[in-house]
Each structure stands twice: as structure tokens, then as C-alpha cells.
# Entry
Amino acid sequence: MKYKLLAASILATLSTSALSATYELTELGTLDGAKHSYVTDVSESGHIIGTANGLYNLPIDISYIDFTESVIENAYDSEEYNFELSDKEITFTLDDIENNDAVFNNADAHSFMVSFLAGRPTDFEYQKLSAVVGIKFDDGIVTEQVLFDEESVDYDGLTRSISNFYNAVSEDGVSVGWSAAPYDKVSFTPDGEDEEETWFTHDFIERGIVISEDGTQKVELVPDFDDYGGTSRANDIIKTNDGYTVVGYVSTGIPEDRLDNIEDNCDNEDEPTSTCVQLLNSSVTTGVFDERAVKWELDEAFNITSTEILGLALTPEDDDDFAFTSTALALNNNGTIVGSSNARYYKNDDTILTMPVYFKNGDVFNFIDQEDDWLSGKALAVNDNDIIVGYASKRIETTLRDQFFYHDISTGNTVFPTGYFNSSSAYGNDINNQGYAVGEGEVGTSENSRRKEAFIYKIGDDKITNLNDLLPCYETDGETDYAYTMAEAKVINEDNEIFGVATKTVEKRDTFGNVETDLEGNIEYESVAVAVKLTPIDGEVEDCAAIEEELYERSSASFPWYTLLLLPLVGLRRVFRF
# Structure
């Protein structure tokens, strides 16, 4: 059962009419054929974008697979054992998949193959799959926005081989994001071998993109340094008098030692060159590319009129053996840009950290005090009053925890508001011009029970307020527990409307989208993520439980294993926190 708190400390933080009201929750919709939906950005004019995850009916190509190889036989044996542990009998064989179309008509077989492929992200001799796509919300209608994916030559529809990160939208609906190039199935004969092998390769690891409001016009943000495809990301966009400003990052080179690794190993003999470069890029913490925060200016016709590299919070030295990176994650109407950058550790110049920064007037400002033991972080948003929100990380109770902060550029003050409890990790995702910030923090003090719940915070208050405490206690019948738990607050507009992600319990569905039942034929249930809007309404905070019953007994989301096809989307606003 879910309880809600009504404590004096909560009421004390409700310092304006926006917070003295309760909130009404409205679902924004879910893409047909997908399990989960998320909001990533909302413009003041009402354009809403996001992502969907957990696509049903992911396409499986088995034409190239040798089902006698030990790797797939061992995976099948493990699957059979898992069925036995659940007192079930497996419903397919590898022969059924290879010769009897089981992957197209047996949900267990389809689930097995998706799991098998998802478990080999760096094995490029197997098909690549992703269940993440960009989406637009429009009055309950949710449509997919394709970034770089293309129609497959092996099966009907898109390749579904890449994750799509759809990050930000301007006042007139122009949007930005980034993705990899879709994978192609190619034939490759290793040096010294006689037989061709099947490999999956693509042209670039990541590339930013600008998309017109109607989705028909797309502009790739190709880096000037595009050796081995280069890299770029587009994380935020604003409309200007002359066009658009977009920020993100771009590759500017490859450090000498990384280039030596590529030239020594990626000779197109044992594997395709692009595959070798991608493996090297994923094997080192900072990747193979030097990457710098960047600002692009585009005119009304989406022509790039200027590209400005924003710099680093350190000065590289000749003997530095490191791929240095910085990134721009958000900007305001004053031209202030925020994000993160490599910086030197104050105790040891050879130790490189990634710290929150802001970029302004050609300078990079690293504003978190490392002497207070902060070791990393990112600035995720900035309002037009130059107040930044984000998170920084330090060790609390022996474990590295992320802590929500706000920083006022005009005063130079950085504040870490009190969270749900001392070691609760928390993130500030957005802030409006009235000084209301939103984000999410961990509840549940046990390491195994920690989960995120959304908060709102007014600059100057003592502590954050759980948004679930501002929602109804019960459904309209007055008895049934309220169906939604706010997990994340991603965006807050100037009307103090909040957009984010809630969880709710629904009938469980398999990878084909069919309702699942247990051994007795009873329908099973699961928790899913849904994109929602919270609207302030007149009313009072409901007293659902006595103060001494300060419990949080909310069910955590039970996401299926195939959402591991990508890093979890929960916790995003315009950028992954990694």
C-alpha cells in the first residue's frame, strides 16, 4: 500500500501559490508498439518530445547464424535451465528457430533471441538491436521521429539497430538529438581465411542532428575532424532572431597514443576497420577522440553559419597522455552555456576529473569546490537568471553519491539542498525563471530498495519536496490507491507545469506485445514508465497518513531484461549521465 506524508516541514516549503496547490497528473500517451515512454524536453510554446523504449516485435535476422556454435548452444542451455527453475517447460528448440519460424511465432523464442543478441554488444558478428526511438507528443497522439535509422535490406521496416537520443526542442518545434549510423550487414574475409564471415558495421559512432518541426528536413552536424567518422552530439537548441543556436560536443582530433593504437591494430585484416575503432573507443574511459563543447549557429534555412569550440577547464600539456573532453548540455537566452569538462584534481595534476562547468564570453568556469571532496558531476540546465542546476558527486558513507546543486553565477554561491536523506543521490534536471527546480532523488534507505522519486524545489528553501506528496492519495473512488508514482521530473515551464516520468502497474506483455499469464492462467502484471504532465490545481495537500507513518511503500518499476539493449533512459534530460 502507498502512504503519503503531511508534515510541517513539507508545508513550510510550499512558499508560493504554485506549490500550495496540488497537482493533476495527465498521461501524454505511449507510442503504439512500445512498452515505456519518457519526456526529454518541452518548449514554452508546448512542443513536447521524448523517447520510447521496449519496442515490441523487434526484427530478428537469423539468416547468417550458425546454430551449432557453442555460444548459442550454451545460451539455449541456460535458457532451458531458467525455465526449469520456474517449473516451466521450454517451448522451442534451436531447430525451431532455425527451420520452423519460431522466432516469428513463438514469444519465448523471440524473447530468447533478443536476449542473446543484447548480451553481445561488442560482438560485431551478430546483429545489433535497440528498442529506443525518438517520439513526439501531440494532444495524446504519439508519433516516432526517425533520426538516422534506415529501411533494412534484410527485413521489412527500419533496421532498429541503433539507440536514438532525442534531446531538445525550440519554441517553434525545431528539435535536436544524436545517434549512431545504422548498422549494415557486410561480408568480410579475415586475412589468411578462405571463407567469408558476416559482420555488422556502421559509418560513425555518433552524430548530432537538427530536425525541422515537421520532421522532413534534417541537418547532420558533421564534425570538421571526421577521421574514422568522428563524433558529435546535439544536446540543446534555442530559437534566435536569426535562426537557431545548438550546443553539444564535437570531435577535434585523436591523441597520438590513441592514433598509434588505431594504426597498429585497425588494419582491416582481422576485422573491419570501423569495428576495430569502435571496440577501441569503448575500451578506454574517455574514448579515442578528443571532444570539445561546441556551439553551432544556424540560419532560418538550417544552414550552419558558424561553429565555435568552447574549450576545456584545463590546459593540456605536451606530455598529457589523455583524450580530453568537454560537453555543452544546455543554454539560456543570455548565451550562458552549461555542461561538463575534464579538470585537474586539485591534489594531483595527473588525475583528471569530469566536473560541472559553464561557458561564457570565451571562458570555461569550473565552479564546484574540489576541496569539499567533490569528484565529478555535470551542470544540466540554466535559467535566464543564470542559475544552474545539476549534480556533483562525493563519497558519502563510503559510497560515491550524486548530489543535487544549484549555482548562482551572479553571486558565485553553490548550494546543495537537503535531499530525501543524507546518502540519497539526487539530480537537478531543470529550473524555470521563477526559481523552481525539478529533478529526482533516491528513496528507500536500503541499498537493495533504492529507487527514484521526483521532487520540486524552490530556490532558497531548506529541502526538496517529493512531488508524490502533492498528488492525490486515492483514485476517484476514494479507496483505491493512486495509480501513479512520479519517478522523475524532467522539465518545468513558466506556468509551473511539470513534465516527467511516472510508473504505473499494467498487464504484463511479452516481446510480441501479448498479455502474459502464469502457470494457472492468471494475468501477470508489471510496472511501466509513462510520460506525464503535472498541472497545478486549486486545492490542499492531502493527508493520507499520520506523520509517524513516514513510509514509502511504492512499487519500483519492473523493467524487462530487453530494456538493457541500452543504458536506462530513466535519469535523462537531453543527455545520459555517464
